[in-house]
Amino acid sequence: MMNKVEICGVNTSNLPVLKNEEMKKLFVRLQQNDRQAREELIQGNLRLVLSVIQRFSNRGEHVDDLFQVGCIGLIKAIDNFDLGQNVRFSTYAVPMIIGEIRRYLRDNNPVRVSRSLRDIAYKALQVREKLLGEKSQEPTLKEISERLNLKQEDVVFALDAIQDPISLFEPIYNDGGDPILVMDQISDDKTSDEQWLEGISIKTALKKLSDREKLILTLRFFEGRTQMEVADEIGISQAQVSRLEKAALKQMRKHI
């Protein structure tokens, strides 16, 4: 994704990099309402946005859109950063940028979640944090639902609704070799050994038929045509199609 040199009209190869001391001086000027300092801080930290959006490269979103949303998070971080906290700006800004991008992805998710469900989910998360602070241990679902005066099922449903979907090709483990993907951890009853062997048997049995018989079975069972439609296509009567179909199926059963 990052091979692209120009994003949103910005030549990424020419973006400036600010040193820590330069950042501090600019923030001091910003506190004095220096608009030029704010612009320099934005330009000098665009590479930070680029580094963050790489984390979301597998979401199928256009890089220009992610970059613009990330810039909104960067601007919010610049406007709210407090030099007195004695932390590096990047440490403060990265979570802000990530949060802005996640909000964008959630709100633009094709699986639409109602506002009421989102409200319940966010309240449940707030209650969880509060209970965690009070008891210094993970609260149970029952405790959260009781504090909200809601059924446990409603809380679970709301929390599930705001979870970000992930790609089946998302890596979940990599020890230096081939990564293990999400899809590697999901079973599929449709690809069992029995069905795999059955598929081979059908292909083998089809090879024993004549070209006309193979064509009839292909049109009937793979393309879903009616006997009348098959008869019209190959130029024979419907009765002949029925007879040839039955004979072909009987022949195949001998080999399956």
Concise summary:
With 256 residues, the protein is mainly α. Helices cover 61% and strands 4% of the residues.
What does this protein structure show overall?
This protein has 256 residues and is mainly alpha-helical. Helix content is 61%, strand content 4%. The protein has a two-stranded antiparallel sheet with strand order 1-2. A hairpin with a 2-residue loop joins strand 1 and strand 2. Helix 11 crosses helix 12 (238-253). The longest helix is centred in the middle third of the chain and has 21 residues, at 115-135. The two termini are 49 Å apart. The mean pLDDT is 79.
Instruction: Tell me the strand percentage band.
Output: under 5%
Instruction: Please give the share of residues in helix.
Output: 55-70%
Largest sheet, strands/sense/barrel? 2 strands, antiparallel
- Mean of residue pLDDT? 79
Which sequence of SSEs, written as H and E, runs from N to C? Answer: EEHHHHHHHHEEHHHH
Return residue spans where pLDDT drops below 50 for at least 5 consecutive residues. Answer: none
What gross morphology would you assign?
elongated
Q: Which class best fits the helix and strand makeup?
A: mainly alpha
Number of helices: 12
Strand order of the largest sheet: 1-2
Total E-strand runs: 4
Radius of gyration: 30 Å
Q: How far from one another are the termini?
A: 49 Å
Structural descriptors:
two-stranded antiparallel ribbon, elongated, mainly alpha
